[in-house]
Amino acid sequence: MTKLKYLIFLSLILFVVMSASAENYTGDFLTNGIGARALGLGGAYVSIADDATATYWNPAGIAGVEQKYQVSLMHAARRSGLGSFSYVSGIGKVLSHLTVGLSWIRAGIDDIPIYYDVPAFDENTSADQRKNDPKFRPREEDFVPAGYLNDSENAYVLSLATGFTVSQSWWDNFGRDSIPPEFLFGINTKVILQSFNGAGDLDETTSQFANYGSSGYGFDAGMLIRLPDLNALFGLENVGGVAVGFNLQDISQTTLTWNTTPAQKESIPSNLNIGLTFFTHLLFNRELIVAYQWQGRYGGQTHIGIEYELTPQLALRTGLRDSRFTSGIGIQLKQFQLDYALLIGDLINTHFLSVLWTF
Q: Does residue 335 fall inside a structural domain?
């Protein structure tokens, strides 16, 4: 082998692009989930969705945020620092019954090193030669990259949401004092861009990789129904409330078109998320949230999350994300909420940090 290229993950990525069998994993970076609170709850968030991260989990939820503006930021180093995952979103009430959100999600692998002509790894060199002859052993200069490649996957999302609350006078017809339910609706329009770019002394073949990219757009729709207490319907006073959430991601699938010759197309399959949340103050008069979510993608996955408010400033979380254990903690500091989540993986663990600013 006269040339050996260590294109970490690149060959795998290109194989996914060119292979029809990999279509179910198209746009996979959008399935990671965002926000350390939601991730600490195992991703069971479609029926909670009560902050700016709802632009991802259920766009309907941003209509229920009481404050006029919120900004959310998150960053995580994935795969032991080899890859990164970031998110930023902002929402605001532009009209009394219309909330708008803007989001950016990015996953990337930066500085993928490119190596050429490493004699120690010539396939015609035997193990004995590498062992006995110094000229066939790796040298320090063999591991100076000729250049680098970067993989960047981005999604830009515009969210619109509205909602209404059943009038108290009509709800009182049930005959028991109770807070009426709230119905929220939202949609997402998103643009997805994926690209490779390179730097350094790249040869002609590798330079072609740096010119590959894809683009596409898609839509999501969500609904969230919140029943703050169960008194009117079931006669259960001071027990708590429930919420039901639905989010259909990538309606009619989302198609990404690559700038290859001929052009290759991939489709992100539609993904239905259904969730149920129960919230109560029965346990030591502190808020307890128990959430369940099912999603249809990848043959169906189950998410379960529990959050308990130790104090008004401190919350503990745990969950299961399709049998993987998650945990987290939330700290409230005036208008700032700081969240941390840990996801247990087969080989490595991933740490997520996020901040939510309300004003």
A: yes
